[in-house]
Design a protein that fits this description.
MetI-like fold, single chain, 76% helix, mainly alpha
């Protein structure tokens, strides 16, 4: 293992951590309000949020490249007036990852909120508690398995991203080269020893993350 650069793992963990935190605070109030809604547009909103599950990452990556490159209207405006460049930068990866990992945060939280006993929520409102208090003091403590699943699976999924990361971030060392990109590059140059080491570390990390979710959920059901 001597001589290997493990910076891609640091970039991967940093990307996954930031993406998970951003999605949690963005999706939490959105999923909560949608779970309480009876709007006829609810299926449409759910379909849009779940779209990354079935849409090829290269398609999403292409449209992000198209929309935010310096040659596009949006990308050119952001760069010219604010100095913001999303393509081939770390924060561009964060933006792309938030879109692509959205369903993994959204679906568990929405399912958890919808499974809550409506009487408990109504009792909280009748006792004078605000929506904010009801969300954090009543709803969240009662959907701990769903909450943990949303956080952990979003984190794990972001670590394993490849297609959209390659499209939007490329492979800039120390900036956008995550572990999955490093494995791909090792394979291209036939450095299978390094690819095996990186792949094994990714395998162990993914397994440990998923095992922790299942163990917690099993314990929570007892």
């Amino acid at each position: 293992m001597q001589g290997l650069d493990f910076t891609p793992f640091i970039v991967s963990l940093k990307l996954a951590f930031i993406t998970t935190i951003v999605l949690f605070f963005v999706v939490l109030p959105f999923a909560w309000n949608l779970s309480q809604s009876k709007s006829k547009f609810k299926p449409l909103i759910q379909s849009i949020c779940a779209l990354p599950l079935v849409l090829p990452p290269t398609v999403m990556g292409f449209y992000i490249l198209f929309a935010f490159s310096k040659n596009s209207f949006i990308g050119g405006f952001l760069y010219e007036h604010f100095g913001i460049q999303l393509v081939f930068t770390f924060w561009g990866l964060v933006f792309a990852s938030c879109i692509y990992s959205l369903p993994f945060m959204f679906q568990p939280l929405l399912s958890g909120f919808e499974s809550l006993n409506k009487n408990v929520i109504e009792a909280s409102y009748l006792s004078g508690k605000s929506k904010f208090t009801t969300l954090f003091k009543v709803a969240l403590p009662n959907i701990k398995p769903s909450l943990l699943t949303a956080l952990v699976v979003t984190f794990a999924h972001t670590i394993g991203e490849f297609g959209i990361v390659l499209m939007v971030g490329g492979g800039v060392s120390g900036e956008t080269k995550v572990a999955s990109i490093a494995i791909y590059e090792f394979s291209e140059i036939l450095d299978f020893k390094s690819a095996h080491i990186y792949s094994f570390i990714m395998l162990v990390m993914s397994f440990v993350v998923l095992l922790s979710v299942y163990l917690f959920n099993q314990k929570a059901k007892k």
